[in-house]
Amino acid sequence: MTFASKITIARICLVPVYVVLAFCYGFTVKNGAPVESLRWWALGVFVFAASTDGVDGWVARKFNQCSAFGAYIDPIADKALLLTGVITLSLIDWGAPGWRLPLWFAAIVILRDCIILGGIKILYCHHRQVKIVPHWTGKICTITQMFALGWVMLRFTKISPVYPCSVAGIFTVWSSIAYIQQGRRILKG
Prior knowledge:
This protein has helices at 3-30, 36-62, 68-91, 103-125, 136-154, 162-188. It has 189 residues and is mainly alpha-helical. It is globular, with a radius of gyration of 18 Å.
């Protein structure tokens, strides 16, 4: 196993750490005595884990450590972190009642990933080579989803999380459509 892949595995291992810290903070909020150090630790773990995504890719390219295992495990690690963050922050309040990601946002994010996975399965079943090229809307989708997560965790309380989630939701739907169209072209092709 390459060093780059070990970094990716470390990102996966940080996901449950983030969840425990996030839920512990949520419980202190619910009990009326928020322990802010838990919030900052959860945020720090999440940001550190997210930053390893760029680091593992850089290490793999710089030191010629690109591998089939790395190509397979990296998107799993990315989705594990992002989906866990979205689900966690839609289930617990991180401030005033309702200071969380809306459930509709979590549903859109989960549905998009299910559509993509289902599409890949359909392509494999039709013996098509699946080489999904990342679309620019998918990259913007990820950035806006991370921004919405950060909005809740940093508690920018002047503006409701509904607004950054609405922007992220638009790009999530848009990228879903782009990937469906890409899958249809592969299926026909």
